[in-house]
Specification:
Elements lengths: L22 H63 L5 H28 L8 E5 H11 L1 H7 L11 E5 H7 L1
Antiparallel strand pairs: 1-2
Helix pairs in contact: 1-2
């Protein structure tokens, strides 16, 4: 049984009655052996891919948790600084501190999104017909304060279509 870089074994045949194998029999058996070699290599590649995926999942989980702690510390300490010493700061200092707090909050949100994304392959998706416009309006409503603070401008043109998707997943994406 040939493989890409090695031989996996031999394909042996047996007949109940004595006979001579024809050239077509030999070609057929070689084709079977070739298919077995491809199947063995595919299974080995799938196993290796699963090992890599498990390693990547463990790494992303560890990385996200290791990053989240200092980000939360920066955000928390900045909020304490704002509360305890904010009245002593000038406008520029307060703006910079608000910027640090905002960026730390966004970084924490990104890290939480990574942790959520990790779990997607273990979640059953609930596909339903959704109004994309209504869902986007809901998300924009929740992000209203963030949008105003960042002075972002969001333009939605025309009516958005109805789609079939998972409501929770699409909300996270938006």
């Amino acid at each position: 049984i040939p493989g890409k870089d090695r031989v996996y074994g031999a394909l042996c045949t047996h007949t109940a009655e004595k006979r001579t194998f024809t050239r077509d029999d030999g070609h057929f058996l070689q084709a079977v052996a070739n298919l077995l070699g491809v199947a063995i290599e595919r299974k080995r590649a799938e196993d290796q891919l699963q090992r890599y995926a498990a390693e990547l999942e463990a790494f992303s989980y560890s990385l996200a948790h290791d990053l989240r702690s200092p980000v939360l510390s920066v955000e928390g300490l900045s909020q304490i600084l704002m509360k305890d010493y904010g009245e002593r700061m000038d406008a520029e200092g307060l703006d910079l501190l608000r910027l640090v707090i905002g960026h730390a909050g966004r970084m924490d949100a990104l890290i939480r999104d990574i942790l959520t994304y990790r779990k997607l392959d273990r979640v059953d998706l609930n596909h339903e017909r959704l109004s994309l416009g209504a869902l986007l309006d809901n998300v924009l409503g929740h992000l209203g304060g963030e949008i105003q603070r960042s002075r972002a401008r969001i333009d939605v043109r025309g009516p958005l279509p109805a789609i079939v998707s998972d409501r929770v997943l699409l909300t996270q994406i938006l």
